[in-house]
Structure formats: C-alpha cells, structure tokens
Amino acid sequence: MGSLSFLVAPKDRRRCLVAIVHNGPVVCAETAQSLMELGWGNRVQVAKDAHGFEELAFVWERSFPRVDAMRDRVLVNAIAEGFSHVLFLDADMVWPTDVLARMLRHHDAGIVGGLYCLKGPPYSPVALADTVREIDGVMHYGYQTEYGQDLIDVNVLGMGCTLVPTAVCAAIGARPWFTYEDDADGWPRVSEDVPFCRKAKAAGVAIWLDPTVKCGHVTSQVIDERWHKRYQASQQGAVAHVATQIEPEGAPV
After folding, report:
1. pLDDT in tens for each of the 253 residues of the chain?
2. Burial grade of 224 (CB within 10 A; 0-12, 13-18, 19 or more)
3. What is the dihedral of CA 26, 75, 130, 66, to 10 degrees?
4. How many helices (H) and strands (E) would you count in the chain?
C-alpha cells in the first residue's frame, strides 16, 4: 500500500499499546462505556489472534496537560517497552465494539485512522486531503468529505482512533514528533497531529483513512458522520432554494 518495509513488524514481535490520551477534568460516560465494551468477552484475544499480535496492552495517559507531550510520552514508553504499534484512542470518543480487530488488521499499512467527525459545523471527517492553497508559507488542506469502503490516502489524520507503527518515530527523526505550531504572532495555528502527519509523510510513510471504522466524537451529544451528511444536505438545500429565487436574465417583470 505504499508504506515503508521497515514499518512491518515480524509476527513474533507484534505488540500493540492501546493509549487513551486524556487531559480533561472529567471522563465522558459514553467514552467509559465504549472503552469497557472493547474488552468484553474475548474481544481482546480475538483481535490478537486474528492478526498475529503477541500482546495488546492498555494505558490511560494523563502525564502532561498538553496533548502533544502526552502522545510523545506514549510513543517513547512504547518504544522502550518493545511495542511495535500504538493505537491512539482519545478520551472524548466512542468506537465500534470490534475496533481492536478492525484497526490491527492494518498493522502493515503505515498510519491508519478510523472515521470520526468535527464536533461543530461543517461536521467534516477529521482527515485532511489535498492541499487547497498556501498562504504565507502555511499549507491549507481540504477535508476528506468523499469516501466509500476502501482505504483513502490522506495527508493528515486526527488521532482519536489511529494506529501508528512505532518505527515511524525513527523515520521522522528526533522528537518532538507531535508538537503544536504557532503563527508569527505566537497564536496557536494547528493542533499536534498536523505536524506529526506532515513529518511522517515527508519520511515516506503512508497515511490512510479507513472510512469503515466509524467512530463518534463526544460532546453533550455524540457527533458522527450523520451530522456531516445532514449539514451537507442542508447546505445543498439552501443553495437550491436561493437559486429558485433568482429570476433568470430577461425574465418578464
């Protein structure tokens, strides 16, 4: 699929650390329930057996107030402990109950993320596709709003449900791997996942969106792709309504 061969871990060394990254004051009830459901019954063992993983461990990461530092800490510890992969799950998300098995199947594909949407309009998938334009040296991407059932090559993914081979870190170089970026005036410009994905892409690592792994983004309500589709439909309806109100040129008064 275009990823580098060194990202592929031998079967006898496949170990995944599932990291729930959390810097908030509370744990969403929906997230807690979804997380518990991931381990019900034999789901962990099924995921391991299906894709040849020796171990599937969990950590709740709360070491720093900054998400970029927490993601780096997870990767540093995972590498030190010999894990071949990290599956990032954020603490404001819900996931399919079989998300472990469905994400681990991509162990040799590079960086792969599930589908989840912004918490506010336009409720687009948190995945950035082609460059739209460059302004003052800053690349502006468009959201990946079209998808089917196949993996989609993207430039940037959110980390709310994303599998990362730990070998990506060596490909990128010295940390920090995740880092916020500020503009020329010192104001935050992009979140930590954008520079990480940009560095990975530059190192030749493939980044994929799996639109079949449908996750929810938790606010006071759970935001999923239905919100995005409703928003798109409402905008199309508004445009159609405006068009009917504009009289064609030369129309009788």
Report:
1. 444 555 667 666 899 999 999 988 888 899 999 999 999 999 999 999 999 999 999 999 988 889 999 999 999 999 999 999 999 999 999 999 999 999 999 999 999 999 999 998 889 999 998 766 665 666 667 888 889 999 999 999 999 999 999 999 999 999 999 999 888 888 877 889 999 999 999 999 999 999 999 999 998 878 889 989 888 888 876 655 444 444 444 433 3
2. middle
3. 40
4. 7, 15
Nearest CA among 93, 85, 90, 78 for reference residue 112: 85
For residues 222 and 30, the answer to whether their CB atoms sit within 8 Å is yes
CA torsion sign, 246 to 250 to 252 to 253?
positive
The pTM score is 0.84
Do the strands 138-143 and 152-153 form a parallel or antiparallel pair, or are they unpaired?
unpaired
Residues contacting 50, CB < 8 A, separation 6+? 101, 104, 105
**What kind of fold does domain 10-245 have according to CATH?**
Spore Coat Polysaccharide Biosynthesis Protein SpsA; Chain A (3.90.550)
Write down the residue that tokens 């993320």 correspond to.
113
Q: Which two tokens stand for residue 137?
A: 């040296």
